[in-house]
Amino acid sequence: MSDAKLKVVVWNEAVHEARNEPATIGEMYPEGIHGAIAAGLRGFYPDSEISTATLADPEHGLSEEVLEQTDVLLWWGHIAHGEVADEVVERVQRHVLGGMGLVVLHSGHFAKIFTRLLGTTCSLKWRNEGERELVWTVKPSHPIAAGIESPIVIPQQEMYGELFDIPEPDDLIFISSFEGGEVFRSGVTFSRGKGRIFYFSPGDQEYPVYHQPQIQKVIANGVGWVAQPGVFREAPEVSNPARGWFEEA
C-alpha cells in the first residue's frame, strides 16, 4: 500500500470546527476532522499527495483543475449538505462517473453527491448516546478488509441502524452492531460509471473515532481500492452504430 503514489483530497464541510460544536471538537481534532483523516492516510501513503478542502474554500476547494488531478476524493459532511453548490456536485459526479474514486464517511450518507449517485434517500435510523459499536467483517476476501481485526471495537459512537435506504451494494464488507440491539451495513461498495465508491459509517464529530488505528486502516484500504489512477477520466460513452458496422473478414 505504501508504494502507491496517489493524489487524494479529503473534503470536510468543517462547520462543526468553525462553530466549536461540540466544545470538545478542537481538543479531539485540532486540525479538523479532515486533518485527522488526512494525517492517518499519510501514514499509509507517505509518497502520495494528500490535501484537504472545505466548504468555505472557493468552489468548496473542488474546482475542475483540482478534480482533474484527484485520484480519490473523501467526503465528510453533517449539517451543511444543502450549502454545497449544485454545480460542484455535478462536477464531482462527472468525475466519479469518469473513474475518480469516492469514499463517503459517516453522515456523508446524506451528501448531495451520495444521494445523487445512489438514487435513493440514503436515510437511516440513528441515536446519539455514545454507545459501543462493534464493526464485524462479513467479507474478509475483499481488499478493503485486508488486515482488519473483527470486530473493531469503538468504545463510543453514534448509533446508525437499519433500515439503511440504499440500493443493493456491490459488496457488503462490514456490519456494525450496537448496545441497543441495532445492526447496520457500515461498509459497502458501489460502482457508478467507471468510478468506485466506498461508504464507511464509523466516525462522528463527538468522538475521536478517526484516531483509532484500525479505522484509519479501513479508510486507507478503501482509498487504495477505489483509486484507479490509470483510468482515462471520461464517462462511459454509448453510441448508435449504423447498420453494417461489422463486416466479416
Report on the structure:
- This protein is of the alpha/beta class.
- It contains seven helices and nine strands.
- The chain has helices spanning 15-19, 25-28, 32-44, 64-68, 86-98, 112-118, 213-226, and strands spanning 7-12, 49-54, 72-76, 101-105, 125-137, 152-161, 171-178, 183-192, 195-200.
- A nine-stranded mixed β-sheet has the order 2-1-3-4-9-8-7-5-6.
- Strand 8 (183-192) and strand 9 (195-200) form a beta hairpin.
The largest β sheet comes out as: 9 strands, mixed
Topology, number of strands: 9
Number of helices: 7
Shape: globular
Mean pLDDT equals 95
Order of helices and strands: EHHHEHEHEHEEEEEH
Rg over CA atoms = 18 Å
User: Strands of the largest sheet, in order across it?
Assistant: 2-1-3-4-9-8-7-5-6
Intertermini distance: 46 Å
Strand content: 25-35%
List keywords for this structure.
9 strands, single chain, alpha/beta, 249 residues
Q: How do you describe this structure in short?
A:
The protein has helices at 15-19, 25-28, 32-44, 64-68, 86-98, 112-118, 213-226; strands spanning 7-12, 49-54, 72-76, 101-105, 125-137, 152-161, 171-178, 183-192, 195-200.
Which SSEs are present, and which pair or pack?
Layout: E1 7-12, H1 15-19, H2 25-28, H3 32-44, E2 49-54, H4 64-68, E3 72-76, H5 86-98, E4 101-105, H6 112-118, E5 125-137, E6 152-161, E7 171-178, E8 183-192, E9 195-200, H7 213-226
Parallel strand pairs: 1-2, 1-3, 3-4, 4-9
Antiparallel strand pairs: 5-6, 5-7, 7-8, 8-9
Helix pairs in contact: 3-7, 5-6
